[in-house]
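Entry type: protein chain
Record version: 2
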Amino acid sequence: MPAAWPTSAEVTSFLTAIGVSLPGGYGVGPEVDAIVEEVHSLTGWRPFLKQTADSSRTFNPTNASIAGPMRPQGGIIVPLDAGLLELTSVTMQGRVLTLNREFWLEPTNTRPYNRIRLAFGFFAQPQSIVVTGKWGYREDIPADMWLAMRDLAAYRILSNLPAKQLASALKSWKEGTVDETYDGKLIQEAVEIRYQTFVNACGRYRRVTLL
């Protein structure tokens, strides 16, 4: 599985492989960045790809944990607003809590973690739970999503090139065993097909939030 998002160089290489040479200085990066943002929006995972450095997120105690120090049956659930792949610490009002004694990460046998279970109630102020670690849904990019992103970026770039310039530089292009004659409408249709493929790929990894 790819370990990173498609790069500008990889999109450019794909375009070159199908017979398209971009004009000098053409910026591919913004198109790729826009598609990465669409991944986050469509999947609901932000970030989708595991962070390379720790960061902290702040959460509110549940009403039960604010109410008092009684030990509730089954503990107190604090939902996380993102996937957590690697934990560094959990603190409550500055006090470091002990994993598997004062709190647990859930779900138990799979990642990413999407909630913590406190062993007992705390007297705690709002925004007093701080979870630090590396956030994300996966440590790699699924192959189907990566290919869909690369192809969508390439075809959006094709559709954005000036028609006169594209028609003169691209009499036809070849992808795999398919040869296509240049036609602006045909390219737009190709963009729409690639976009639907991309949406379908993102849908397979969409975050399910349980109420």
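Comment: The radius of gyration is 23 Å.
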